[in-house]
UniProtKB/TrEMBL annotation:
It comes from Variovorax paradoxus. Residues 213-227 have a biased composition (Polar residues). The keyword Coiled coil does not apply. Keywords: Signal. Residues 194-212 have a biased composition (Low complexity). Transmembrane segments: none annotated. Residues 156-253, 268-303 are annotated as: Disordered. This is Uncharacterized protein. It comes from the Bacteria. Residues 171-184 have a biased composition (Basic and acidic residues). Residues 272-303 have a biased composition (Pro residues). The keyword Signal applies. Residues 1-25 form the signal peptide.
Amino acid sequence: MKRRLISTALALGAVASSLALPAQAQSQPPARVGSLMQISVVDRGTGAELPVYRHRGEYWVAGRPGARYAIRARNAMGERIMAVMSVDGVNVVTGETAGVGQNGYVFGARERSDITGWRKSDSQIAAFEFAAAGNSYASRTGRPDDVGVIGVAMFRERMPEPPPPPVTPYPRRDEFGDRERRSESSSLGDARAKAAPGAAADKSVAAESAASPSGSMARQSAPSPSLGTAHGRRETSYVGKTTFERAQSSPDEVIRIRYDSRENLVAAGVIPVPPPPRWPRPAGPSPFPGSEPGYVPDPPPRY
């Protein structure tokens, strides 16, 4: 079933999926996750991609209260990919309580784009802004249970089936006698009868393959952290509309990134903190500075 889905209107062109980093930077936590698409969270004030920390099987980023941020998505495939995005359990395009079957953004092959806010129209968004959980858009609209998580569900596009090859009519030869024509017609019918079971089997296998689901996304609930995403100031952001038919009903990949303040993540052990440096202690006085044997001598005379 075809759906009309919002797509970015401006083509950003192909962008490299990875960058060469100096040796010191390579030791830092990665900033991007995902296979079909590389997802990162960008601090719009500094332009830096936030480090992604992996802790107990989950991805985390540290946000700054009051800072605006963007979800940066890079299509790593040579085909169109649809991304249904949610923040705090709310669809960023429609404002619905998020579900994987809803509308999203369509990215062209190798395309990169920053999703900077809640979609208000074809030309405006309300900026994503880290804020106290109680001031988040989800909490203010009565949906506080999933505050503190960013989700991206990705879908491949169904490719149109190639048209069947044209049927070449059997050439009519007037010089053939009735017997030759009947004989060749009978041979052609036998050949078609032999090929029919194989073709039927191919169709049966294709039908079973199309009916087999590739998996489903299990809904996971998370505790409400202290940081959420507010409905920030209005900004200009143009999009267009396109049609997209999913190859299957379940997502081909789901990315889940949780976030909170750096202080809370350090306290929870998500961000490792190196121990303070140990300074060498001074040598101090020695109880046995000399090793000469003997008895206690008299002190020198006073002057």
